[in-house]
Amino acid sequence: MASIVKFSINLDKIDKTKIINGKKGKYLPLTLTLNNDVDQYGNQGPVIMEQSKEEREAKADKIYLGNAAVVWTDGNNVDRAPYNDQNAAPAATVDAGDDLPF
User: Fold this and answer.
1) Residue 83 has what pLDDT?
2) Across the strands, what pairs with 69?
3) Helix (H) or strand (E) holding 66
4) Where in the chain are the domains?
5) Which of 10, 42, 54, 69 gets the most CB atoms within 10 Å of its CB?
6) Residue 24 contacts by C-beta under 8 Å, 6 or more apart in sequence?
């Protein structure tokens, strides 16, 4: 595992026509973009609804659902976002040698 990224989405902005009915449930294709820099709110990139090739070629507006931040990394992928929430526990670090059951 190289990183853990947390994000939340605004459910009110979901385009219901993009929901895919699969064999095991309903799915919403999303795209997460991680930037090199952290913004003023501690976020490292947006979460958007995935666009089709035709939408990208037509330069259709992206539907932004939320933001994301890296909360843990093994250092081989991306840098972790600064942790500013004083009321929550600090992000845990995991030793690469740990034998995790998952």
Assistant:
1) 64
2) 6
3) strand 64-73
4) 3-73
5) 69
6) none
